[in-house]
Specification:
The protein is an alpha/beta fold. Helix 5 (about 120-130) crosses helix 8 (about 155-170). The protein has 13 helices and six strands. Strands 3-2-4-1-5-6 form a six-stranded parallel beta sheet, sandwiched between helices. It folds into two domains: about 5-110 and about 180-300, P-loop containing nucleotide triphosphate hydrolases (Rossmann fold), CATH 3.40.50.300; about 115-175, Orthogonal Bundle (Histone, subunit A), CATH 1.10.20.140. Strand 2, helix 2 (about 50-55) and strand 3 form a beta-alpha-beta unit. The mean pLDDT is about 95. It binds one RNA strand through helix 3, helix 4, helix 8 and helix 12.
Length: about 300
RNA sequence: GGCGCCAUAGCCAAGUGGUAAGGCAAGGGUCUGCAAAACCCUGACUCCCCGGUUCAAAUCCGGGUGGCGCCU
């Protein structure tokens, strides 16, 4: 049994295609989206509504509290059993999402060296970066794990810290713990291929729709519930901008413009990421049924 | 009609005689526990046009064109 992966840039119609294919193939959807996991973040994340889910079970949505920290490893830990269960029950897992990092964690045996994050260690290295500079931090990594250091730019503090963290916690180099990208199960990956201009236009329309649907109210509600402004989920596009805008008394049209801009930049990064996806099949956009048809025939090959 | 100011990449913009900062956008890329995040790379053979001064001009002078402001 093969899994189906519906990936690609945001605002590209993944949700509809995934539901349609799940219906046709007799499968269930497993979301691979770093923001859909949070309860209460619906409008800004374009969380699929009950109608959009069309009766198909959707997993990995609303599995985390909005104030909590959720990371790839949490995702991997929760989603993998779901996929395995579907496979054993003969249901096609339709992995749908735009978070390539999450998708990879599910698709490949990533392992992550089994080294969990340690806030105190991270803070320690962050302090060093602040006090001695990024170059100095990078030099420290070069001393213990030259291979990892060579692959990282000194400015990429986040990753330099992680490499240092792994070394400190395990005594082993991160470069020695790299796993080979071996798929855990066979899969077919597809994505809609929109011309750039059209993609950007869709993003614009989608953001407009979010404001009409009450994005600002959703954010205010979250804040009123006591979700901190700096919570992980509030860093999502659409949330951070509204929070900023609310604080500075900015017009909604301005918030909207910034969100559109950030979403476009995000979409471009996704495009870059998915270019490397193994055997990704690009679908002609426009006709959902035609696309679903094509996916099903590709799946049966 | 007169006077003043301005004209540098798609946009904002520094540079005021010595061989074009920076930011944003755009494009390309990285990605193994914060990934809707973080990070990297790329851009004017040329500074509105014409002429002049000078070894040397985006920078000075004259004229033109365009924009802005003030005055009559």
């Amino acid at each position: 049994m093969k899994a189906l992966v519906v990936c690609g840039a945001t605002a590209t119609g993944k949700t509809a295609l995934a539901a349609e294919c799940a219906l046709r193939l007799g499968g269930e959807v497993v979301s691979a989206d770093s923001m859909l996991v949070y309860r209460g973040l619906d409008i800004g994340t374009a969380k699929p509504t009950a109608e959009e889910r069309r009766g198909v079970p959707h997993h990995m949505i609303d599995v985390a509290e909005p104030g909590s920290d959720f990371s790839v490893s949490d995702y991997e830990r929760m989603a993998l059993p779901v996929v395995n269960d579907l496979l054993s029950r003969g249901k096609v897992p339709v992995l749908c999402g735009g978070t390539g990092f999450y998708l990879n964690a599910l698709l490949y045996r990533s392992g992550f060296g089994g080294t969990p994050a340690d806030p105190s260690v991270r803070e320690k290295y962050m302090r060093i970066a602040d006090a001695e500079g990024r170059e100095a931090l990078h030099a420290r990594l070069s001393a213990v794990d030259p291979e990892s250091a060579a692959a990282l730019h000194p400015n990429d503090v986040k990753r330099v810290v992680r490499a240092l963290e792994i070394y400190e916690l395990t005594g082993r180099k991160k470069s020695d713990q790299r796993d080979l990208p071996i798929p855990r199960f066979p899969f077919l990956a597809v994505a809609f291929d929109y011309p750039r201009e059209e993609l950007y236009a869709r993003i614009g329309r989608r953001v407009d729709a979010m404001f009409r649907a009450g994005l600002v109210r959703e954010v205010q509600g979250l804040l009123a519930r006591g979700i901190p402004e700096n919570a992980q989920c509030m860093q999502g596009i659409g949330y951070k901008e509204v929070i900023e805008g609310l604080k500075n008394g900015v017009l909604q049209s301005t918030m909207s413009d910034i969100i559109k801009q950030n979403t476009r930049n995000y979409a471009k990064r996704q495009l870059t990421f998915f270019k490397r996806m193994q055997g990704l099949k690009l679908l002609a956009p426009g006709d959902l049924n035609a696309a679903a048809q094509e996916v099903c025939s590709l799946y049966d090959d």
